């Protein structure tokens, strides 16, 4: 419930504060006095975008603040989702700086406009003069029936399943596209994979084969060199090993004459041992090097295959070639497994579709059940507001599965009891739409826990008995909801629990808008003026007094 609205420096409002009652609040005033400006300011704290041109004084910022009394259970989910502190008193503030920048706060915590707009859905239903256009939209008509069914759980459960259904459909399409594209490449990839698989290379094989080929290709030269070196080291007339041993012994003999001789002798001994070991390894290498024509031919063939595959796949090493082989195997297996994946998804889609159809049928049944008393109630209310021959019919036709079931809902209207029903958008006039919207909202309000409903001249185009009946509907709605209504109808004004008068005033040479809560006698006088002009007659005053009673 909106308890207080404070407006500073907005449009032609310098500053005002309005305390609202919890029942029927009526706002009246001359055309152009600024009644709708109040709702414009209110819409800003409900998440509407701000126009920097609304500043009354360009040197000061604009501040609009609304104090709401809320039931924690109604907004707990929103506050928990956005990690905001929840209190019994809810204060929403909107500020527009002189530079045109806008900021919003919920209980002094900064929020963005989308959060503000989302919260407003829990607090206020704002019906303005042109909102009757919503009545022509299929989504609104469906929402009306669902509100009257008032069982959100089945629809929420259906929508969860439908989200998965859409996701599976999307995944199926992607896999079909992938398979179609992959099939074009499958044969070539399989050929490449078979070629690499048949080659059967192991890690580092090409590099090792290349090293072995160099040895075999120069076996004779290697053996000759190694044999000559081995001979010089060990078997020559004066082998190097023997000469080094003699040198070491000679230096060792000087140990008694020079202090450095033992150290040099030890180093020569180490060199002798190292050279002796090298000689052994040279002999071993020489024994290993053999000429093998068959092995040489095998190496050439194997390396030729390896080099060809390296060049074909534009890589340098066996490791890179094996990585390509693994990638190709994954691609080929992926394509070969696509059919299995597709089959699994198609089965899941079939199961989901069957479940959704059953859930959608239950949702349709609920809507059809709600439609009958809805039509009856609306038609009764239409007669009450001066349209006795008007009839509304909620046509429900089944179609493809969608986010909200499988129903197409169309409100059909017959203004003259002709039996010829047509879509509202084609046959209802503006005045008829206004009264029809009021009738529908009065019914929906009984099912939806929305504390505040705001009507901006919804009574446009009606008068007399129709206006009187509208006032009864407003009065009835106000028993369970806070109603804020801008009106020109004295019949509606007479039902108010709180009557606010909007007027223009001159201040410092500027026109400003002000609001005053009328006393009982002021209300009687003002309602009489609404009926008969600026100087009301005694009869008008008596009628006004009767209305206020």
TrEMBL record:
The keyword NADP does not apply. Pfam families: SMC_N (PF02463). GO terms for cellular component: bacterial nucleoid. One of its GO terms (biological process) is DNA repair. Residues 123-185, 335-362 form a coiled coil. It comes from the Bacteria. GO terms for molecular function: ATP binding. The keyword Magnesium does not apply. Keywords: ATP-binding, Coiled coil, DNA damage, DNA repair, Nucleotide-binding. Residues 2-504 form the RecF/RecN/SMC N-terminal domain. PANTHER family: DNA REPAIR PROTEIN RECN (PTHR11059:SF0). May be involved in recombinational repair of damaged DNA. Belongs to the RecN family. This is DNA repair protein RecN. It comes from Chitinophaga silvisoli.
């Amino acid at each position: 419930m909106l308890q207080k609205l404070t407006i500073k420096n907005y449009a032609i409002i310098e500053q005002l504060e309005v305390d609202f009652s919890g029942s029927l609040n009526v706002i009246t005033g001359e055309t152009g006095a600024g009644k709708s400006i109040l709702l414009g300011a209110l819409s800003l704290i409900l998440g509407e975008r701000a126009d920097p041109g609304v500043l009354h004084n360009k040197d000061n910022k604009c501040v609009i603040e609304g104090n709401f009394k809320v039931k924690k259970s109604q907004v707990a989910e929103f506050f928990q989702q956005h990690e905001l502190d929840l209190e019994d008193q809810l204060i929403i503030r909107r500020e527009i700086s002189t530079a045109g920048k806008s900021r919003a706060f919920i209980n002094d915590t900064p929020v963005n406009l989308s959060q503000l707009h989302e919260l407003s859905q829990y607090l206020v239903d704002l019906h303005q003069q042109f909102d009757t256009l919503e009545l022509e939209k299929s989504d609104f008509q469906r929402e009306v029936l669902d509100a009257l069914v008032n069982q959100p759980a089945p629809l929420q459960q259906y929508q969860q399943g439908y989200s998965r259904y859409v996701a599976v459909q999307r995944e199926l399409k992607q896999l079909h596209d992938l398979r179609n594209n992959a099939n074009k490449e499958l044969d070539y990839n399989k050929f490449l994979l078979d070629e690499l698989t048949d080659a059967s290379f192991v890690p580092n094989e090409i590099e090792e084969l290349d090293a072995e080929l160099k040895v075999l290709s120069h076996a004779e030269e290697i053996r000759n060199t190694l044999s000559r070196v081995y001979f010089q080291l060990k078997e020559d007339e004066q082998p190097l090993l023997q000469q080094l041993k003699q040198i070491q012994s000679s230096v060792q003999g000087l140990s008694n004459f020079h202090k450095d001789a033992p150290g040099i002798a030890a180093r020569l001994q180490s060199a002798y041992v190292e050279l002796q070991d090298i000689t052994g390894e040279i002999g071993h290498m020489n024994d290993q090097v053999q000429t093998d024509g068959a092995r040489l031919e095998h190496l050439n063939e194997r390396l030729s295959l390896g080099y060809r595959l390296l060049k074909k796949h534009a890589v340098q090493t066996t490791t890179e070639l094996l990585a390509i082989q693994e990638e190709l195997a994954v691609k080929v297996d992926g394509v070969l497994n696509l059919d299995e994946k597709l089959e699994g998804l198609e089965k899941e889609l079939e199961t989901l579709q069957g479940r959704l159809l059953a859930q959608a049928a239950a949702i349709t049944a609920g809507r059809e059940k709600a439609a009958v008393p809805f039509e009856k109630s609306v038609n009764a209310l239409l007669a009450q507001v001066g349209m006795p021959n008007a009839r509304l019919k909620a046509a429900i036709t089944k179609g493809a599965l969608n986010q909200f079931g499988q129903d197409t809902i169309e409100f059909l209207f017959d203004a003259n009891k002709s039996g010829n029903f047509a879509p509202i958008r084609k046959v209802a006039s503006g005045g008829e739409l206004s009264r029809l919207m009021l009738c529908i909202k009065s019914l929906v309000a009984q099912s939806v826990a929305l504390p505040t409903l705001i009507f901006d001249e919804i009574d446009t185009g009606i008068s007399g008995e129709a206006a009187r009946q509208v006032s009864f509907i407003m009065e009835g709605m106000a028993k369970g909801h806070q109603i804020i209504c801008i009106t020109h109808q004295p019949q509606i004004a007479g039902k108010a629990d709180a009557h606010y008068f909007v007027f223009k005033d001159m201040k410092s040479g500027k026109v400003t808008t002000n609001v005053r809560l009328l006393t009982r006698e002021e209300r009687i006088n003002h309602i009489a003026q609404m009926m008969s002009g600026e100087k009301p007659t005694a009869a008008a005053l008596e009628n006004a007094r009767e209305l206020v009673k």
